[in-house]
Amino acid sequence: MPILVFLHGLLGTKQDWQYIIEELKKNLPHFSSQSYLCLDLPFHGEQTNYHIEDFEQSAQYLSRQITAKIADKPYILVGYSLGGRLALNYALQSKYPQSKLVALILEGANLGVENEQQRLERWQNDLAWAKRFSQETMSKVLNDWYQQPVFAHLSARERKQLISQRRHQSGQNIAKMLIATSLAKQPSFHQKVRSFSLPIYYFCGEKDEKFKQMAQENQLNLFLIERAGHNAHLENPIAFANKIVEIINRT
């Protein structure tokens, strides 16, 4: 069985995957601590002192981590949101060898913007958020962050829980990561995903209309997670893990 390498999203840590790991242990024979690798992204969790400035450096980071920790074993990259975008860049754009990569599982990952006007607007938006993260209290910024349309499905309780979990992150570090990995700086992968030689499985909460539409328009192999929105692995870990089991059993 390929090793599952999990990449969290902006504001997260490798601990975000704990419920998925628990479900996989229940449902996959011989699934153990040797069967997966959860990484903290630069500026996050245990990697707060690891700084990057762009997508190329993020790919270098992933290459080093994967080489050091799983060597030459086959693996599947599982990335949520920002983690999915970094996985895409690593697999489709970077110069680092991926001979042992066998598939991508992307959850709510943006394939990129396709015109310069959208790119400029996104850059200005990310700059504004980065300024807020670097200057205001985390609780205040996160309260507004989770009011964005992509999180509209969250209940007040779920929103409060996320803010409580994320407010201990460094606002300065989140600002730096936003600038380094802005969607405005990401290559567009809309064409490349259609011709990529390895399987791409796209996970999306059924309530996440934006990314569901994007996956359908780009003819991705779409796996809908019931009773979930943008953060499907957190909102319905059982269904999410079951989809991974389906894929593993095919591999």
UniProtKB/TrEMBL annotation:
Catalyzes a proton abstraction reaction that results in 2,5-elimination of pyruvate from 2-succinyl-5-enolpyruvyl-6-hydroxy-3-cyclohexene-1-carboxylate (SEPHCHC) and the formation of 2-succinyl-6-hydroxy-2,4-cyclohexadiene-1-carboxylate (SHCHC). GO terms for molecular function: 2-succinyl-6-hydroxy-2,4-cyclohexadiene-1-carboxylate synthase activity. Keywords: Lyase, Menaquinone biosynthesis. Its EC number is 4.2.99.20. The keyword Lyase applies. Transmembrane segments: none annotated. Residues 2-237 form the AB hydrolase-1 domain. Monomer. Pathway: Quinol/quinone metabolism; 1,4-dihydroxy-2-naphthoate biosynthesis; 1,4-dihydroxy-2-naphthoate from chorismate: step 3/7; Quinol/quinone metabolism; menaquinone biosynthesis. NCBIfam families: menH_SHCHC, PRK11126.1. InterPro entries: AB_hydrolase_1 (IPR000073), AB_hydrolase_fold (IPR029058), SHCHC_synthase_MenH (IPR022485). It is an enzyme of class 4 (lyase). GO terms for biological process: menaquinone biosynthetic process. Belongs to the AB hydrolase superfamily. MenH family. This is Putative 2-succinyl-6-hydroxy-2,4-cyclohexadiene-1-carboxylate synthase.
